[in-house]
């Protein structure tokens, strides 16, 4: 009996130690934080670019646009500068649009509603080159999802089982 308990303790320790090596590989960011994707106040037309520059985006990260009676478009740099909505690369209008970054570089987002882009509802996101390191520099306003929550729950389950056995 003591040998089986010792073996179980050893396996639990090995399991928990192995979980420490997992890292979160992507993050989900909510554009505009609690305000969502809306036309900014007249004196705050740079709000989305400020928000984007405060975050460090990597390949695999996702941005989430929450809005009502609006849309979001991914466009070229020229279309961004001109607020041209005629040929989007990506278009979402369901009120809960997610977009995942699949390459490094600049991404240009604008509202598809007439006049909104001109009022500042547009944003440039720069995605960093993946250098193999873990994500850092994320602001407290990001919503983190991924393997870390799973690892935490698994650790709790294993520790609970271990405490029941002893």
TrEMBL record:
Keyword Transmembrane helix among record annotations: yes
Record GO terms (molecular function): electron transfer activity
InterPro entries recorded: Cupredoxin, ENL_dom, Phytocyanin-like, Phytocyanin_dom
Transmembrane parts of this sequence: 146-165
Membrane topology (UniProt): Lipid-anchor; GPI-anchor
GO cellular component: endomembrane system; plasma membrane; side of membrane
Keyword line: Disulfide bond, Glycoprotein, GPI-anchor, Lipoprotein, Membrane, Signal, Transmembrane, Transmembrane helix
Pfam families registered for this protein in UniProt: Cu_bind_like
Chain ranges of the Phytocyanin domain: 27-129
Compartment(s) of residence: Endomembrane system; Membrane
Family as reported in the entry's similarity comment: Belongs to the early nodulin-like (ENODL) family.
Full protein name: Early nodulin-like protein
